[in-house]
Amino acid sequence: MEKELFDKRKKRIRDLIYDKHYHPMKQKEIGYLLQVEPEDRKEFVQILHELVDEGVVEVSKRGKYSPVSKKTLTGTFVCTQKGFGFVSVEGEEDDFYINENDMNGAFHEDTVQIEVTEERARNGRRKEARIVKVLERGMTEIVGTFEKCKSYGFVVPDNLRFDSDIFIPKEECGNLTDGFKVLVKIVDYGDLGKSPEGRILEVLGHRDDPRVDILSIVKAYNIPTEFGEEVKKEVGAVPSVIEKSSLEGRLDLRDWQTVTIDGEDAKDLDDAITLTKTSGGYQLGVHIADVSDYVKENSALDKEALKRGTSVYLVDRVIPMLPHQLSNGICSLNAGTDRLALSCIMDLDKEGILKGHRIAETVIHVDERMTYTSVALILDGDEKERKRYEKLVPMFEQMKELSDILREVRHERGSVDFDFPESKIVLNEYGKAVDVIPSQRNKATKIIEDFMLLANETVAENFYWQEIPFVYRTHDNPDGEKVKKLRTFLENFGIVLKLKKDEIHPKEIQKLLTKVEGTPEEALISRLTLRSMKQARYTTESSGHFGLSTSYYCHFTSPIRRYPDLQIHRIIKETLRGKLDAKRIRHYESILAKVSEQSSKMERRADEVEREVEKLKKAEYMERHIGQQYKGVISGVTGWGIYVELPNTIEGMVHVSKLPGDYYNYDESSYSMTGERTGRKWKLGQPVEIVVTGVDKILKNIDFEIIEEDEHGEDGRNKADCE
């Protein structure tokens, strides 16, 4: 009630200031006009301050309040490494360009109020604005390298978008010396003549210590690495074996032949498979760890899981969503033990069409913990592996059979399958990168992928038609402008992309990928096509999944490592038990939008951290290979240079000033560089030979130069080029 009254008074004051007959007044004058009682004066002043802070009204140097004189908006500031920045505003299609002289003390990720200065920037592409006020600081903790001076210290931020060193008072420096990585809390953001001031929260280790580099990235993204005492206490109360009371009412599938198939290093096994052939086709069982039986809603464990949103998989560590005692213990579907599961048992005909399904709480017993490598060897006819797993071989062959059928069904409806090689980075005992190799999907990984996709679709469609609050995995149609740019680019390769009113059907994307399969430009066209598509996210509405060409999709299969899966398990179980009454439906309607938003946000954070760590380790690896030559293909062309990707997935850049033999101009429509004098072109997909010339581990950049052979077939670079 107090909040309602406060908001009502706030609206009244705002309406007064925006009345057409209002003239700018001081605080006392407004109070007198509104007849503010003495006991309400404190609240009245608070309201005026809030209206100013929110950018709704402005106050002059003489203390007079008036409506904002120019168009102002609120958004998030993103600073670039080049000094300028952009502000993204919800509801605005384009970001606003912010000149480095118009930042007004804002730092990267701050929530800011901007004043629009030009509806279209001079280059005709982007609106311009200036920051008039910082409403909320985005980065409150910074990771950086400590440097010591005589009477104080300072920290150089790792994040180059935070464009100021942070002053550390003498009393905060302790015994630290140059080169230590630290986590700093900013206590004062300074001003134009004064640097921000910080307090050291944590010393991560010296920058040369093993694995401190990755820990620094983890801390910079504010990813928690430890669990609190309350969570540990709850974990301690979780049983290490299944209790008999937990089996009541469950479907007993312990006599079904069951396997898990995962990577060699996986310890959190959250899905198991059973498959049998029937007279009409196949019965496929996808059994998922029943994590919700141990992680109760609103418990400390649950709140921490939602806060983390997802497990983070890095080259040297896993930062789990749930403590290892759960994720690797009672929740993991370890072989030779009874485990609680939530199962989706599907009946399919010989053409792979779903004819019926059952979702049930079950108890299972995994017979064998298999790896992708081992199953792939079995399917490729390896006699040693087939002998070792003799009893399971028929099931694996049936799995491959069904997987091929399901893949064809998805292909027929237009599902898009991007098959990019991923990187496997090998570290030594000190955490240094000693090798980078491409990691391709094999027959076994595709089997699990196909079965999980089917289970996720089946569950999503089931609950959509029940009209129950749910969390879906959605993927919107690509942006029309990006699709048109893609079509223009493809015309350079003689490829026509069919559009209907600037929209595209996933089947056209699929046809495109099939057409370029096996060609030199396959990886490049695939990558550009992927960039034209939107990012998948979690939502409460089932608006469809463009990439999979399906109307219904969710994430049901990984509750150990993804919060949305855990969330919908609770809804599924309440539905199965007949406990999803009107009160519980209202409860889920009130929380699922926030759960979806948080999960999407944490997924993006995890992706960014994984990319940053991968870029760092690739740069570290190439640092040992400066001067070496490699063959690669042009994977990107920009105004500042061309990117070249090597067979091991490492990408480096040849700066435009280093392109040989001419002055080159960038053609955005064809993604190419053309020489002014020679007409020579550098374009996407073109094979080139490069030499590694430099590495910047701070920027995570790798520099290449193109090697040109002279007419005798020798290295065409002269002595000056090498110095």
**Radius of gyration (Å):** 30 Å
Which oligomerization state do the chains in this entry correspond to? single chain
Count of beta strands: 34
> How would you write the strand order of the largest sheet?
4-5-6-8-7
Catalogue the unreliable spans.
Answer: 711-723
How would you summarize what this structure contains?
Pfam families: CSD2 (PF17876), OB_RNB (PF08206), RNB (PF00773), S1 (PF00575). The chain is α+β, with helices and mostly antiparallel strands. The longest helix is centred in the last third of the chain and has 42 residues, at 582-623.
Could you characterize the architecture of this molecule?
This is Ribonuclease R. It comes from Anaerostipes hominis (ex Lee et al. 2021). Keywords: Coiled coil, Cytoplasm, Exonuclease, Hydrolase, Nuclease, RNA-binding. It is found in: Cytoplasm. Residues 627-707 form the S1 motif domain. The strands form 10 sheets. Strands 4-5-6-8-7 form a 5-stranded mixed β-barrel. Strands 11-10-9-12-13 form a 5-stranded antiparallel sheet. It contains 18 helices and 34 strands. Residues 711-723 have low confidence and may be disordered. 31% of the residues lie in helices and 27% in strands. The protein is globular, with a radius of gyration of 30 Å. Helix 1 (2-17) packs across helix 3. The chain is α+β, with helices and mostly antiparallel strands and 723 residues long.
Strands, helices and their partners?
Blueprint: H1 2-17, E1 25-26, H2 27-34, H3 41-53, E2 57-59, E3 64-67, E4 72-79, E5 85-88, E6 96-98, E7 111-118, E8 127-136, E9 141-148, E10 153-157, E11 166-168, H4 170-173, E12 180-188, E13 197-206, H5 212-220, H6 229-236, E14 251-252, E15 259-262, E16 271-277, E17 281-289, H7 300-308, E18 312-313, E19 318-319, H8 324-330, E20 338-349, E21 354-365, E22 368-371, H9 372-379, H10 383-388, H11 393-413, E23 422-427, E24 433-439, H12 443-465, E25 472-474, H13 480-490, H14 506-516, H15 522-531, E26 537-539, H16 563-576, H17 582-623, E27 629-638, E28 641-645, E29 651-655, E30 664-667, E31 672-675, E32 681-683, E33 687-696, E34 701-706, H18 719-722
Parallel strand pairs: 6-8, 14-21, 15-22
Antiparallel strand pairs: 1-3, 2-3, 4-5, 4-7, 5-6, 7-8, 9-10, 9-12, 10-11, 12-13, 16-17, 17-20, 18-19, 20-21, 23-24, 25-26, 27-28, 27-33, 28-29, 30-31, 31-32, 33-34
Helix pairs in contact: 1-3, 5-17, 11-12, 13-15, 16-17
